[in-house]
Structure formats: structure tokens, C-alpha cells
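Field log, afternoon session.

UNIT: design team B
ACTIVITY: writing a sequence onto a fixed backbone
BACKBONE:
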């Protein structure tokens, strides 16, 4: 909170009103991963007001104002709940009794009803961008954030163990998902927010995402990419499983991608351009003739309160690696000749001397 308030002072911003639940959590400690609006009013002096639909179990906010998220007297909808939140926001702003010339908001997450409240209370106020400030602050992870990411990684690795135990020809993608999801929930100890890719075999070449009732075929390679949110923080790991005994070509593809991941580890240092790492990894993968040109996605990205955030390891990225970055690296190749593809992913924290691997489950097929 102190670093954020210092930025408000430096940029001569009189007030910040945050509306992205991730940033509300980042500054207040109150996590509510739902559609219902979560707002945090912050002054440059460091005082804060949290506006939420559920009283928090923990928060460092100085004041908490709760709005009604359900009533038998009005139809429940997102719009109706926003009206209730806007009413409380108006009350909170009027209670501040201060002149405001510049207000920092998050435009992509700021409801029109909230903007109307601001216009009514401070018609001459200039709106500034809070997202830029918070993105910069959030990029360098503190140790408590890294600890949550590590715990999330351990949850994912429990899911991979379950996958390895059940994957076989004849079972469906959906059945694998059920086994993995159940183990992840069990390991986490609560019903966490869960996403992942469960497309198998040739379907994984162009598709990703939700599992189908498609039966896994002998010879398929099964790519499973999992990125749940563990108490607000994401891990993001991918492994490739050989459904039956791997062919020589599949083993060659796996070795090439495994080597590419090790190569990436050797490249990443503070000050190195993310685009340069992408280009070197892409060139290495394209040297494998059977899958040349198939690596059509990013080589990696940052992780934290979002499953994908800066730094972006893509061709046009202007990011350079910094101490405190937590990143996912995921080189891959795909081909019908492989009956799918190979994608391997690890998570790292960037230190002065290089990267520290946070994920330790086997990369093996």
C-alpha cells in the first residue's frame, strides 16, 4: 500500500478508486473472486475504504462498507448489484469531504454507474490511469506472493500425478479431467478457481481448453496445461503424457523441447530482452523439421494475480527481465506425425544471477 500511495503523491493524484478485484486484493488483503463489484478507495495519505458485498475475514482497509447483493424485493442481476455498489460508493465519496482534481481509476473495470457517481461528485475532475501504476508494482513479487505461487504449483503437480495414473487408451479426456480436478481440489483444501487445457492427440494441434468425451487413442500425446488460482495467485504448468509407449519420433520431439526449456533457463537474466529469448527459442524449435513452423504461441509470460501478465515473452515484446519476475516458460512443437505435440512448462523466479525453478515434477513423457 505504501508504494502505491507514494506513486499517487509523485503523480499528483488526489484519489484512487480501484475496481479490479485482483488489485483490491493486492492492496487490501480482501479476496473475492466473483463478478460482484469490489471497490477500494485509496488516498495519497494511505487511508482506504473497502466496498464489498461480503464482510471480509481479513483486510488492512481502514473502513469497510458493505452493499446488499441479494434481496427478495428486487430481481437479482449484475446490473442490480452494481446499482447497490454505486449507492455505497456515492456515500463513501461524499463522506471524504475533500477537493479532488485527479482521480486514478481502472477504465477497463470501471462500471458506467461508478463513473457517473464521480461526474456528479467532482464534475471537473480529471481521470487518470491506475492500471499502469499497479501493473508496475505487481510485477516484482514479494516472498509471500512467491510462497503462494509455490503452493499453487504443488497443487498442480498433484493433478499431474493423478493424470499419470489414469491416462490410457480408451479413457476419455473428460475422465482424465475429472481425476485431475478431484486431486487438485483435494490438495488445495478448497474449491479453488480452476482452468486448464485438456485437448488430446491431434485435437491439441489447433484446439485447447475444455475436455470432451473424446476417447484417447493409442499413440496419442496428451498435453495437459493447468493454471488454477490458489488464494488469488496462479501457477501455470504443462506436461505431455505418452498414452502408450512413445515412438522414436515422439521421444525426439520431447528431447528437443526439454532441451529448449533448459536453453531458455540459461538465457534469462535481469536486463535480457524477452523478445530476444523468444526468437532464440523459436529458431531452435524450427530446426526440428517435422514440426517447423508449428510453434505459433508465446514462449512464456509472467504469472501472479493474473494467469498471464508481464513480462510477455513474444516477438514484439518490449519487456526486459527484472529481478522479482515470476514467469512461466512453455516451448512446444506440434505435428500430426506426433499424434499431437509436446509442450513442457516450468515456473521460475528471476534473481540477479539467473532463474530459480519453482516446479519440480517430472518432465518425462
Amino acid at each position: 500500500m505504501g508504494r502505491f500511495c507514494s506513486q499517487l503523491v509523485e503523480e499528483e493524484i488526489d484519489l484512487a478508486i480501484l475496481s479490479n478485484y485482483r488489485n483490491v486484493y493486492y492492496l487490501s488483503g480482501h479476496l473475492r473472486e466473483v463478478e460482484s463489484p469490489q471497490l477500494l478507495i485509496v488516498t495519497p495519505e494511505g487511508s482506504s475504504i473497502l466496498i464489498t458485498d461480503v464482510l471480509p475475514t481479513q483486510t488492512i482497509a481502514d473502513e469497510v462498507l458493505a452493499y446488499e447483493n441479494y434481496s427478495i424485493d428486487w430481481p437479482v442481476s449484475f446490473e442490480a448489484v452494481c446499482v447497490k455498489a454505486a449507492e455505497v460508493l456515492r456515500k463513501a465519496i461524499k463522506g471524504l469531504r475533500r477537493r479532488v482534481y485527479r482521480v486514478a481509476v481502472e477504465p477497463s473495470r470501471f462500471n458506467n454507474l461508478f463513473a457517473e457517481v464521480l461526474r456528479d461528485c467532482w464534475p471537473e475532475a480529471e481521470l487518470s490511469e491506475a492500471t499502469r501504476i499497479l501493473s508496475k508494482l505487481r510485477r516484482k513479487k514479494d516472498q509471500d506472493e512467491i510462497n503462494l505461487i509455490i503452493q499453487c504449483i504443488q497443487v498442480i503437480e498433484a493433478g499431474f500425478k493423478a493424470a499419470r495414473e489414469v491416462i490410457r487408451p480408451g479413457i476419455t479426456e473428460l475422465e482424465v479431467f475429472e481425476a485431475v480436478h478431484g486431486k487438485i481440489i483435494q490438495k488445495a483444501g478448497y474449491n479453488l478457481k480452476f482452468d486448464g487445457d485438456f485437448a488430446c492427440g491431434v485435437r491439441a494441434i489447433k484446439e485447447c481448453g475444455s475436455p470432451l468425451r473424446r476417447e484417447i487413442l493409442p499413440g496419442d500425446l496428451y498435453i495437459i496445461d493447468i493454471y488454477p488460482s490458489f488464494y488469488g495467485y496462479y501457477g501455470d504448468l504443462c506436461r505431455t503424457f505418452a498414452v502408450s509407449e512413445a515412438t522414436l519420433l515422439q521421444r525426439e520431439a520431447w528431447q528437443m523441447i526439454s532441451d529448449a526449456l533448459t536453453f531458455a533457463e540459461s538465457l534469462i537474466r535481469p536486463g535480457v530482452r524477452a523478445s530476444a529469448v523468444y526468437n532464440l527459442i523459436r529458431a531452435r524449435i524450427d530446426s526440428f523439421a517435422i514440426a517447423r513452423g508449428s510453434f505459433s504461441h508465446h514462449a512464456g509470460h509472467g504469472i501472479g494475480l493474473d494467469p498471464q501478465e508481464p513480462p510477455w515473452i513474444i516477438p514484439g515484446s518490449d519487456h526486459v527481465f527484472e529481478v522479482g519476475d515470476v514467469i512461466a516458460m512453455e516451448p512446444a512443437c506440434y505435428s500430426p506425425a506426433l499424434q499431437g505435440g509436446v509442450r513442457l512448462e516450468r515456473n521460475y523466479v528471476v534473481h540477479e544471477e539467473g532463474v530459480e525453478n519453482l516446479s519440480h515434477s517430472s518432465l518425462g513423457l
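LOG NOTE: The mean pLDDT is 96.
NEXT ACTIVITY: expression trials, pending approval
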